[in-house]
Amino acid sequence: YNMSAAVFKVLRLSHLGGRGVGAGSMRFDLSVASVILYLLLVVVEGHVLYRKRYLSSHPISDPVPEDLLRGDVHFLFPYVSLPSRLIHWYNNWLMILGFKMPLQLHHLGKLPKDVHARPVYGHFREVYE
Q1: Residue 100, pLDDT score
Q2: pLDDT for residue 108
Q3: Residue 112 and residue 78 in contact, taking contact as beta carbons nearer than 8 Å
Q4: Phi first, then psi: what are they for 47, rounded to 5°?
Q5: Alpha carbons 65 and 100: distance in angstroms, whole number
Q6: What residues pair up with 73 in beta bridges, in sequence order?
Q7: More confident residue, 24 or 41
Q8: What is the 3-state secondary structure (H, E, C) of 102-128?
Q9: CA nearest to 81, candidates 72, 93, 89
Q10: Which of 15, 33, 77, 101 has the most crowded Cβ, counting Cβ within 10 A?
Q11: Tens digits of per-residue pLDDT, 78-98?
């Protein structure tokens, strides 16, 4: 996403430059700032890919949580990224299924161990004491 957004922002910047919009314009300055931010995000993403998984000779392996190894856990909120948490992308399959037919309890699956009542109560207790 960041790579394609950076490309489109560079194209927008070249379009503005071709129309004669200069560095004194706020639109041009904001476009330059957004290009710099997107390129920074691309560099960070490339570094993460290099260090964690694909390009390094000694990749860092993240262990898969045992909740995800079971096939009956469908509540993935603790394990998704921030953009997925904001738009609930991980939950689309459940929304589509609920649109097609009424949901039953077996469709929802089991909760991860981190979201059971005891760990949540312990967390609240730590925070409020």
Answers
A1: 93
A2: 80
A3: yes
A4: -65, -40
A5: 31
A6: 110
A7: 41
A8: CCCHHHHCECCHHHCHHHHHHHHHHHH
A9: 89
A10: 77
A11: 777 777 777 777 778 888 988
pLDDT at 1 over 80: no
* C-alpha separations of 109 from 67, 72, 94, 105 in Å: 12, 5, 11, 7
Q: Is residue 9's pLDDT more than 70?
A: yes
Residue located via tokens 């070249």: 14
- Single-letter residue type at 101: M
Tokens of 62: 């993240």
Residue burial 8-32, b: 16+ Cβ < 10 Å; e: rest? ebeeebeebeeeebeeeeeebeebe
- Separation of alpha carbons 31 and 36, rounded Å: 9
Residue that has been written with the tokens 């921030």 in this structure? 82
3-state secondary structure the chain: CHHHHHHHHHHHHHHHHHCCCCCCCHHHHHHHHHHHHHHHHHHHHHHHHHHHCCCCCCCCCCCCCHHHHCCCECCCHHHCCHHHHHHCHHHHHHHHHHHHCCCCHHHHCECCHHHCHHHHHHHHHHHHC
Please tell me the distance from the alpha carbon of residue 62 to that of residue 46, in angstroms, as a whole number. Answer: 17
